[in-house]
Amino acid sequence: MNKRYTSLRWLLLGAGIIAIIGLTAMNVYSLYQLHESTIEADRQPKKLRIKEFTDRVRYRFYKPFWGLSATNMDWLKARFEKESQFTYEVGKRVYKAATDSLYDNVYFVTPEMDPCRKHEPILRYSSVKKKLIEANEYPESICSGMAKARSGMQSIVDYSGYTNKTFFDADKSVTIVFIDPSNESIFGYLVIVLNRDYLIQQYLPENLQERFGKGQHSGMQIWIRDWTTDTIIASSHPNMSYNSNNIQFKQSFPNFFDNWNIEVAFTNTPTVKASNTSLIRNLFLLGGAFLILIGALVFMFTSAQKERKLAKRQANFLANVTHELKTPLSVMQAAGENLSDGRVSDQERIKSYGTHIFDEAVRLRTMIEKLLDVAKSDAGESMINPRPLNVSNAVKKYIQEHQKYIKRKGFQLETQISDHSLIVMIDPNSFGTILSNLVKNAIKYSGEEKYVGIFLKKEGQRICLRVVDHGIGMSKEVQSNIFEKFYRAEGTLTAKTKGHGLGLSIVKSLVDLNEGNISVDSSVKLGSTFKVSFPILSASQETGTEQTQHSSENVQSASLTS
Predict the structure, then answer these.
(1) Does the global pTM surpass 0.85?
(2) What CATH class does 313-376 carry?
């Protein structure tokens, strides 16, 4: 039953911890989702502004040719076959392009011309003469623009419905293909060369800075970057250096400037800053609550475990004490009855009965005193009267008074006492109880090798007392609990040894009250060493203590006299 309850307690503890971790993880996830949603809501209008910017740039390039889709190809063909010139409507739009700052020159190539392989003359539109003239020299971008246009037209299987189709050759040229829908054939290629210097040095930087570079709360920094050459074309904030690690959003130009991207680094707006602050604050609060809940759960569990163990020890202690108290009382009662009935007249037997009664009374008194010491310690009423004590003399006196008893028990006693006049501030009765309990503990758990060692020496500014035995020893687990009340290690020898688990608890309490330290070093079947240390009084401290005692004695005598 107990094992089942123990398993259930551990199961509930594990379930509680898992539940707390799960709830905390869900809250953290929700906080991050809310934070990301806030950031995305803040950035979405900015992304739309960037998309709008690319559309405006695209519109700016198409603006001079707006309306070419409505070109009457029959009129254009007739005019070109007759005079090698455009119609008025087409010429008007070509003139706009030729005089636009974005473009350098406008060229027209018919399907029969092959300028790229044969270097044949082509037609160039003269904005001065407002007509097409023959040109023997032209830039290489004409060929790359036409190559891209021809490649793109091959992918269009059906020309029906189109009168023209526009192709961008990166940042070099724009090619408009005129299509004759009557026989689904290409009439010619209008190639407009871009003014790259104006585009890069004026148009794009000015528009970026006008649209995104003003004010302190624009919320983003924008660069137009040529990803093929890894060069920056333009920036909304020219003084800001580009760092690819800071880029959080990219936008390509739709169907033109294939080698260029708009790259954006978002800056913290008041909304994002507030969200960051709120996230950090909530995470700290959540982390603190998590630690408190886990700590409280573990504390309650461990406290319950300790209370359960303590209750079990107290029950065993009560049973042992009851038995221990009955034994001397029974002996004293039997001896007393024999003496009171007058059955015993022999003086030797009377003396023997008296000795039994005396020994059992001493034993009973010792047990009662231990119980009283524990009760006082629990109630915080342990009264001590510290005074300067020569520890060497105190230990020598104890050995002198008890060595016959120890040797009569069959023990080998080894002592090594420092010759120094080492003075410590300690309650003499407490020191006697500490030493007596440690020696009795060594005798009680001696095992087969009956040995007790008492060693006293100076270590730094402390006096160290060691009580050594070669007894049964203790495991690490037992050592960690040995100073707890009612604790007794489980084992064959300890089960046969009388005790209540109070001696070492009393020792620990007295050592702490006298501002000392106690530790144990033990190995199973090799014995144990208990070490107790106290700070040594310096000469100045000793003198001050003596003066205090003399003054207190004078006050007491004066009060008695009065």
Answers:
(1) no
(2) mainly alpha
